[in-house]
Amino acid sequence: MKHLGTITLETERLLLRRYVPDDAEDAFNNWTNSETVTKYLIWPPHGTLDVTRGYIQYCIDGYKNADNYNWVIEYKENGQVIGSISVVRLEEEIDCAEIGYCLSEKYWGRGIMPEAFGRVIAFLFREVGVNRIQATHDTNNPKSGRVMEKCGLQYEGTLRQAGKNNQGIGDKVVRAILREDYDIRSGSEER
Predict the structure, then answer these.
(1) How many angstroms separate the CA atoms of 116 and 99, rounded?
(2) Of 17, 35, 63, 180, whose CB count within 10 A is highest?
(3) Distance from C-alpha of 171 to C-alpha of 152, rounded to nearest angstrom
(4) Per-residue pLDDT for 186 more than 90?
(5) pLDDT value at residue 191
(6) How wide is the angle at C-alpha 100 spanned by C-alphas 99 and 104, nearest 5°?
């Protein structure tokens, strides 16, 4: 892999970029304090704006590492940050990146997360050189699985009682896309 770090990526409606301290208020108001958004996540909703500020500083500190990929999602129409998408785990020995994401519930159902995830997939395959991109979701959160399906991730299995989130221990679905799948899906055989 050729690590490039968190560089700015763009889509028609979105700017995927590094966090800056001024993002804290939007992040807190749009998703980090939401029990609905964090229901199936491994971290609890942020109780105060200061918790979100601390998290954002942690993210900013991580940008010094070239293998750190952690984008805030800015909605171009109104300039607000409305979610995040990141590589939550890298397995260098097999060129695999695992993706995690969350989005303000106010923006659900608009195709925003598939748009962001699709752009991240293209970047990781084409520019970083990963071979496999995977993601998981709780079986009780099929909408997250639908996002993955829209981006070409195939169902690989359900791991029974293999995940823990804010709902407790539960079953976890694994989905993935390989670079060769992506090449076929995008109509390109180049590597």
Answers:
(1) 11
(2) 17
(3) 22
(4) no
(5) 42
(6) 140
